[in-house]
Write a structure and sequence with these properties.
- The structure is a single chain.
- Strands 1, 2, 4, 7, 8 and 11 form a six-stranded mixed β-sheet that branches.
- Helix content is 19%, strand content 27%.
- Among the domains are: 158 residues, no CATH class; 76 residues, Immunoglobulin-like.
- A hairpin with a 2-residue loop joins strand 7 and strand 8.
């Protein structure tokens, strides 16, 4: 046992001094770093194509990972912890949103079994991660004696093993995860197509997760609840956006026409809790009822603190009406323009494209980020989009404010129901305005 510990200590000391002390090493020509994944998103690394007849007692693996992590967040769980001890975290550097980590595996016993070696599960921040590139240093028995020689890291390809059960991984895509108030969630910044991605969710004290969604190009990506605040999804071949809604544990809805299983329930909870929307009466919310144009600008006016505004200029806005000040404020700030014939149409049902256009103009007036943009050609009815919404709708879809309505349709001129408005307003407040 003492001899084994001495060998392990010697190898670790040598590994930490790589670059200053030459070592004997097995050639890495023809070696590949392989990766596979488990159902819960763990990424298991291995080496294939090891030199014929070589017996390895140490492996140094240098990998570049997407995202920025501290040394304590990088770990490699060995496949056979009784056979060797990993040491990691002593060499980690970050640059340009990426992390380079060097992991050392050493043992007093042989690590490899012929031409293959299973290294273990690599994680960053508790999440399985696929290296973008890798270099290895293979240490044979000569390293134990401290013999002279030339040893250095050699670049090896990072490949997916053939014949496995995993779907073939494609290119890497971004994971946009704007943080929501009253809780946090953790996820990788990028992932490969078909990679199982893990999301960890932690509400603040006194709050609970009401909804977690993943969308890509206007479509929902299925989520699997693994329990304990852990969720997984399969990365599509495009960027995705995560949305988490947290509400207080004591909040309830007094409405008899909605239940916790309704898709809009957490969004209605949010707007109701923050006084943005009330019921149609004390017991009904009427989630399927269309929303008027006057109500939308009134909600935004309330979010702004109900500032005073100039005189109303629209012919169909009744003096003294509940929406008069709100419409005047919105017009004064360029948020609404009316129909172009002197009318605003406060009682008219607002369409989906009208609503996102109003929100786009409000975001512009507030100086919020307008850089998001989505390709709308994925929707079969994208050609129905009106001219005034040509810039606002791609922005709204790109930042996850609005999604398709099924059958690959956007329905830009369809009415925006109260349930849809609650969802859009919640996303806007949390992810764009960061107001509540």
């Amino acid at each position: 046992m003492k001899k084994g510990k001495r060998w392990v200590g010697l190898l670790l000391a040598c590994a930490l001094l790589i670059g200053a002390l030459p070592l004997h090493a097995a050639a890495a020509a023809g070696v590949s770093l392989t990766y596979s994944q488990t159902a819960n998103g763990q990424v298991v690394l291995g080496l294939e194509g090891l030199p014929s007849g070589s017996v390895l007692y140490g492996v140094a693996l240098q990998v570049t990972l997407p995202g920025t992590y501290t040394p304590a967040q990088i770990s490699l769980t060995p496949a056979d912890p009784l056979n060797y001890s990993p040491s990691y975290g002593s060499q980690v550097s970050t640059s340009g949103g990426k992390t380079t980590a060097t992991v050392y595996l050493v043992s007093s016993l042989a690590l490899n079994n012929g031409s293959t070696l299973t290294l273990g599960a690599l994680s960053a921040g508790g999440m399985g991660v696929i290296p973008e590139n890798a270099k290895v240093l293979l240490m044979d028995s000569d390293a134990l004696t401290g013999g002279l020689g030339s040893a250095s890291f050699e670049t090896v390809p990072v490949v997916q093993p053939t014949g496995g059960s995993d779907l073939p991984f494609g290119d890497s895509y971004n994971i946009h995860a704007p943080q929501s108030p009253h809780g946090v969630y953790q996820v990788l910044p990028t992932a490969r197509e078909n990679q199982v991605v893990t999301v960890y969710v932690q509400p603040d004290p006194g709050y609970k997760l009401a909804a977690l969604t993943v969308t890509s190009q206007g479509r929902h990506v299925p989520l699997l609840d693994m329990g304990g605040g852990q969720y997984t999804f399969c990365m599509p071949g495009a960027d995705v956006t995560l949305e988490a809604i947290f509400v207080t544990t004591g909040i309830y809805l007094p409405f008899t026409d909605m239940g916790p299983d309704d898709w809009a329930y957490p969004y209605v909870q949010y707007v109701y809790e923050h006084g943005m929307m009330n019921g149609m009466d004390d017991t009904t919310f009427s989630p399927g009822t269309p929303t008027s144009r006057g109500m939308i600008v009134t909600i935004l006016h309330r979010l702004e603190g109900s500032p005073k505004s100039g005189n109303n200029t629209f012919s169909d806005v009744t003096p003294g009406s509940w929406y008069e000040d709100s419409v005047a404020w919105a017009a004064e700030n360029g948020i609404v323009l009316g129909y172009g014939d002197g009318r605003f149409g406060p009682g008219d049902v607002i369409t989906r494209e009208q609503m996102v256009t109003i929100l786009h103009r409000y975001a512009q007036a507030k100086g919020y980020d307008l850089s998001a943009s989505a390709d709308l050609t994925q929707f079969s009815d994208a050609s129905h989009l009106s001219g005034f919404a040509q810039s606002s709708m791609p922005w709204a879809v790109g930042c996850g404010l609005i999604n398709g309505v099924g059958e690959n349709r956007l329905e830009p001129q369809g009415s925006a129901t109260r349930a849809q408005v609650a969802a859009i307003l919640t996303r806007f407040c949390q992810n764009i305005a960061h107001l509540l």
